[in-house]
Amino acid sequence: MADSNMGKRPAGSGFNGTRKKGGRGHGPGGKMMPGEKAKDFKGTMKKLMGYLAPHKFALIAVFIFAIASTVFNIISPTILGNATDKVVEGLMSGTGIDFTGLFHILMVLLGMYGLCLLFGALQGWIMADVSQTVIYELRDAMSKKLDRLPLKYFDRQTHGEIQSRMVNDIETVNQTLSLSLTQMITSFTTIIGILIMMLRISVIMTVTALVVLPLSMLVIKLVVSRSQGHFKNQQKYLGYVNGHVEEMYTGHDIVKAFNREKESREVFDAYNDKLCESGWKSQFLSGIMMPVTMLIGNLAYVAVCLLGGYLAINGKVSIGDIQAFIQYVRSFNQPISQVANVANQLQSTAAAAERVFELLEEEEEVDLEKTPVCQIAPEEVRGKVAFDHVSFGYDADETVINDFSFTAEPGQRVAIVGPTGAGKTTIVKLLMRFYELNGGCIRVDDHDIRDFSRADLRQMFGMVLQDTWLNSGTIRENIRYGRRDATDEEVEAAAKAAHIDHFIRTQPKGYDMEINEEANNISQGQKQLLTIARALLADTPIMILDEATSSVDTRTEALIQKAMATLMQGRTSFIIAHRLSTIKDADHILVMNHGDIIEQGTHESLLAQNGFYTNLYNSQFAE
Amino acid sequence: MRTVFKYYKSYIPLIVGILAFLFGQAMCELALPGYMSDIINNGIVKGDMDYIWKIGMIMILVSCGSVVCSIVSSYLSARTAAGSARKIRGALFDKVTDFSAAELSEFSTASLITRSTNDVQMVQQTTVMTLRLACFAPIMGIGAVIKALRTSVSLSWTVGVALAVIVVIMLMSFFLVLPKFKVLQEKLDRINLIMKERLTGLLVIRAFTTEKTEERRFDDANEELKKINMFVNRAMSFMMPALMFVMNGVSILIIWAGAHLVDSQSLMIGDMLAYLQYAMHVIMSFLYITMMFIMLPRAAVSMQRIGKVLDVEPRIEDPAEPKTLQQPKGEICFDHVSFAYPDADEKTLDDISFTAKPGQTTAIIGSTGSGKSTVLNLIPRFYDVTEGAVKMDGVDIRDITQEELRERIGYVPQKGVLFSGTIASNLQYGKEDATCDEMIEAAETAQAMEFIKTKEHGLDEEVAQGGTNVSGGQKQRLSIARALVKKANVYLFDDSFSALDFKTDQALRKALKEKVGDSTIIIVAQRINTVLDADQIVVMDEGHMAGIGTHEELMKSCEVYKEIALSQLSEEELERGRK
């Protein structure tokens, strides 16, 4: 057994430490922070067990190996003590040491250490397999779930939160599965085993050693409760400092333009001072915990030495026994603090796992399994789109679209106009069945869109959004996103039609140029053209376009307009329009305000109404 | 690095103290096995109970001494680490505050934030670890070696063997496992990236029904992560038992070899047991030192990153003997100004000359990359000109203090940056003692009152960090109001109307004319509507001035302007617009 007086070993031992970086831990003493608690600890654990169930044989093996390796670990000090006794015996009796006997004992001991190593490694090996498989399955389940959740869910949750569940929470569960679980088994076995072994050597010595235990618990509790406040403060002020730094750096020009450098420094200094104070206090308190418990441990050590010495003189115990006993006392503290740690860890694991399961159990989109009533091949769709008394609200009690009816004939251009935030994209989202209607229905070619499978329905629509989403991957891959089985020639033809072919060819690797993670190695305008090419390649009967308001230089702008015109040719198209030229060319205009369609008609008829549209139109130029 | 170490200078006495107490602690702890050996050799073997008591008491005293030393050094190192971190953090913040836009973009804001927060935190943690562990382990290790050698020279080979085996294990893990940790992080990043893309591209993915492709892409990454995780976990599950085995093995060796020495009367039995403990100390110290070698490089990287920021000298400084503006009016004059970004080969601006007069609106238009925002950024001295001069009321702006210059300017950035607090506190950023009426007036001019009224708490509505709870258009209007509260001589609008719809844009410009008509107004714009009625329009094209004049003049004389205008509006609309 490793016997160390250094006492600075972080719980869980150094080497695992490297693995623990990241996650939710915050520096030294992070383990002292109270973990968050799960709402339903039992239920969550049961579900987690469900994932472990298929591996039950492997887990049983892990249990057996873990216990076996611990048992050998516990017995070995006694045997080492026997070896010492052999030496002492030989010395005392004056007959010389029985080296054959000693060799025999030491070989047994070596064998036991060997088995200990073997079982320990085997146990870890199997557990690594089990835990990683389970984690893989959990991630996989979440990945699949993501595509089955209705858009509504994503309106409620921030991306950061969903991502945190998929990464941080899973990582927490991972830590527990690969470390804490076996740690718990070995800790419990060790505690029980050591107790038995100590009692076997001497009851009175055991009692003496154990008296110390509650004392050290008490001290730990005292220090923890003291330092907790400082730790909380440290986190709090660290948050303040980081927040202030982030704000001031991002608003650097504002701070300068308004001459507020001095004020900003004062705020920072105040936070920084507080952070420093709570920092050293929490650091100090967590720092003294080890030496203080160590002192108590040493007291036990001395007491055992004294009592052992007394008993040894009276011949009640042997020197080897004392040696073994000291080792036991030394190794008793660690599993106890480990059990306390694991209990904490289990709590935060349950909390993390709960968030994972929450996501997995979210309500899925309706009719996901329903077999579609109606199937039309995309090339046979004519492109008639009808809204029939449609009403809709993002929340059940708040209707944003009221009894809306309108029919777009095949090949028509429909412009949707309105001030910012009028809900123009809502119509589009309903068309593609991203949301379910509250009432009425939408028909494509006289079929209710709910009669199609979602995949079939969406394959009828092409989409060019202002939010130009591109993958990190090559340009070719990104265009091919429109149709996976398109040939290289088709991809390039689409690029040509979208007036982006020339640009692509002038890039370092042409069509194989990688778009980087932030997609900032090509300009906004080019991105727009790429998404148009993507939509062109998809060659769908119905198009949905969102005209860009964002800053694009004049020449690219002209290209985009030309490309969009190509895109709309011969297709029913819905355009969220910002440009008058587009609006005027439209066959039908829907005017929206505050999420409602308030006027509709052609440009002329709307102007004639002299209503909201006229107002909107004139506002651009009126002086 | 050296720049950072400077901040530890005042802590040298404390650090010396820490070393002294660590030394004391090590001495105390190393004394214990010796006493134990005495108890065995002279007490138990000879049956002398009084002796056992006496030594026992000494051992308790020594233990207490060790704890006292440890607590004191813990206290000192906590103070040192937190205090030096405070100084470094403060120095960084001061430095970055003094930076001009040039230095800021050199590092990027995100990187500066990490350097001021995470990197400092890392350095602080490492400082504690170093002071308590890296300093302690060698003292302890060397002490234990000396003690062990004193106890028995002939047993020293056992520890040597153990260390050799440990070195092999460590080297193996260095070369086999450690690199995998890096790969592991990369795979984790990849999972993160794919997740992020799937979330941001949700609509597109569903629209193109490529869910399956995305799932496959994720699955590949997931599979890879699983494999590498398994490898690392397996390797780790072998490491710990292996190290234990080495330590246990060495005790067998010591007993076997020790027994022979005891038998030949050259070693006492108690000494053999003490030796066992010294050996463990040596091995543990060695392990700690290797661990520090893993930790320290990471901290060194952080230190270098911090040092790089601290080493930069801000380029823009106040003049030694600043002039003052007498009766400022706010006339801005560009006098043959050229500008190139530091380290750039080409000039961003080339020979720009124009004068923006008080009471007039000067608009700057051009395509992206034409340098129009750069023109604006030169006025509050976010950057300094490379050639020529920018003058305010005839005085070169480099001859007055930055504070005085900026006092005259109301600046509205492209992105509406707000600070956490309330709407009122944000408006008061323009003028510290602005009254409620002043704020309302500014907000009304900025067309912000309309939505402020709809907020539950009105002006006292909370603004979250980064202004996440207000929309883009609202942010822009608030940052316009913030500048207006200041009542400046010069107003700079850097494409500040882009997130507003045409109607609001128009109403705002009208109100501006009424309220701050006597000030100099300079507007950078993309939209032609925004500039139509400006008193003069400066047309930028690839860093040059392509033309200057009113809308009508430019439509006749300036090709670039005409092209921009026609791309946004038809001829007929342009005609109509002027009427």
TrEMBL record, chain A:
Residues covered by the ABC transmembrane type-1 domain: 60-348
Chief localization: membrane
Membrane topology value: Multi-pass membrane protein
Keywords linked to the UniProt accession: ATP-binding, Cell membrane, Membrane, Nucleotide-binding, Transmembrane, Transmembrane helix, Transport
Claim: Cell membrane is one of the keywords in the record: yes
Location in the cell: Cell membrane
InterPro entries noted in UniProt: AAA+_ATPase, ABC1_TM_dom, ABC1_TM_sf, ABC_transporter-like_ATP-bd, ABC_transporter-like_CS, P-loop_NTPase, Type_1_exporter
TM spans (from-to): 57-81, 101-122, 176-197, 203-224, 288-313
Pfam name, any one: ABC_tran
Keyword RNA-binding recorded: no
All copies of domain ABC transporter, residue ranges: 385-619
Molecular functions per Gene Ontology: ABC-type oligopeptide transporter activity; ATP binding; ATP hydrolysis activity
Region (Disordered): 1-36
Record protein name field: ABC transporter ATP-binding protein
Automatic annotation (TrEMBL), chain B:
Recorded topology in the membrane: Multi-pass membrane protein
Keywords of this entry: ATP-binding, Cell membrane, Membrane, Nucleotide-binding, Transmembrane, Transmembrane helix, Transport
Residue stretches making up the ABC transporter domain: 332-567
Statement: the UniProt record of this protein carries the keyword Cell membrane: yes
Domain ABC transmembrane type-1: from-to ranges: 16-298
Compartments where located: Cell membrane
A GO molecular function held by the record: ABC-type oligopeptide transporter activity
Major location category of this protein: membrane
SUPFAM superfamilies linked to this entry: ABC transporter transmembrane region (SSF90123), P-loop containing nucleoside triphosphate hydrolases (SSF52540)
CDD domains per the UniProt record, alphabetical: ABC_6TM_Tm287_like (cd18548)
Ranges that cross the membrane: 52-78, 131-149, 155-178, 235-258, 278-296
Keyword ATP-binding: yes
InterPro entries: AAA+_ATPase, ABC1_TM_dom, ABC1_TM_sf, ABC_transporter-like_ATP-bd, ABC_transporter-like_CS, P-loop_NTPase, Type_1_exporter
Annotated PROSITE patterns: ABC_TM1F, ABC_TRANSPORTER_1, ABC_TRANSPORTER_2
Matching PANTHER family: ATP-BINDING CASSETTE SUB-FAMILY B MEMBER 10, MITOCHONDRIAL, ATP-DEPENDENT PERMEASE MDL1, MITOCHONDRIAL
Protein name (Swiss-Prot/TrEMBL): ABC transporter ATP-binding protein
Organism name: Lentihominibacter faecis
